[in-house]
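Support reply, case 0932

Customer input (verbatim):
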Amino acid sequence: MFWGKKLLIKLFIINLFVLCGPAYPLQIQAQNIPLIESKIKEVFSLPELKAASYGIILTDVATGKILFSDQGEKLLIPASSLKIATAAVVLRKLGSDKRMVTRLSYEGSIDKNGTLNGNIIVVGAGDPTLGSKENSGTDAETLIARWVTKVKNAGIRKVNGAVIGDASCFQTEAEARDWLYEDIGNHYGAFATGLCLNENRYTLILNSPAGENQLCEVKSYFPVVPGLNHTSFVRTSIAKGEDAWILGGPGQNERKVIGTLPPGKGSCTINGALPDPPLAVAFRLKQALNAAGIEVSGNPKTVNMPTDKKGVRKELDAFASPPLKSILEKMLIHSQNLFAENMICLLATDGKKEEGLKLLHAAWPSQSGTKHKNFINDGSGLSPMNAVTPYSLAEASADWYAQVGKLGLKEKVPGVFVKSGYMERVRAYTGIIDKPGKPRMAFTFIVNHYRCGPPEMRRQMEKIMNAF
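Our regenerated output:
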């Protein structure tokens, strides 16, 4: 009878382990390794990929244990996949409910006739979604109209002063260090600013005439900002099609437009990056005030660095951004470079980009030890000088997943949810693998310096990811 009880207890324990033990059999992953290795060998034996650099790593989300690695500690250019690290660190440091509040204020006094002897000031808080309807819910025109109404409601009928765009919450000069010059004049190359509007972009309209190799002249651009000029060198081309971009950096009003457009299309648009976003905000608000019958005597101005010469400010309006979690989700889905760069400045209490990058580096999980030494020059991945290990990005993906799950990640192949990255000769994926019967894994897969076209590189990488 005694031994019968012991046997029953043993059987109960075995059954309990089977029913309540690990949610996946570890050997399932082990059985996949030969398939992964076979696909890697097949892909990187192709003539166009033999000279390429690559790194792949899969880690267990729960334990951090490395399940598979092929050059997972190799330094590689990550492109926009770097944003997963920015998102994970910023969310953990600043909290999912943080909001940035842009304030409309004035300084000076209002006399009995409604004349403000002082300035109207838009005080930025680093909100990259300001005036972007798809991101904040309110477009730039609606927001500026709201501010005009607030000025009217304060009894101001005339401004004996200026409209000022105050971007001094970020103590950083307008710059795009280590970014390619051909990128920074275009909308995706907009740089970090403490005061943004409509993602710091404008739209340039060119005319594409009929006929081959014809000059495409500039028709107009909007919104209009003071001093901005464009010279077009764009030509029509049947073979090359739509491949035109704007050359010009921060603070540069004289801009060149180069490349090609298809012939006979008529009006074609290119989105550019504003050379001075805070000045553009001040200019547009002054225009709107004048149109509403509120005369502003002074020229629009900006404050880009902290100053002790601030007068007493009286608040007219406060406009809050969406919660940080929502901003980061859209940053990942749409790969918003401006959002990522502003997030880096928000990390630092003094708003300095250099300090924010140091904090990003220090807070990144893999930086807590001595395993990996990454080179991080921005938060968006637009710099070709960035170099990180796949292992580091996998840890960042696991950190993001621990906080918000698969939020902001897209399903690339069945069960593989990614933040992608792409630039010339660079393609990268990082994220989470969530397939039935397998351990939930964080992964990174980066390829640099391939010789095939981008669509073919994507197709070959998907072959390998399907084996994960």
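We compared this against your earlier run and they match. Two observations from our side: The chain has three domains: 26-96+351-465, 101-172+277-322, 181-273. The chain is about 30% helix and 25% strand. Please reopen the case if you see a mismatch on your end.
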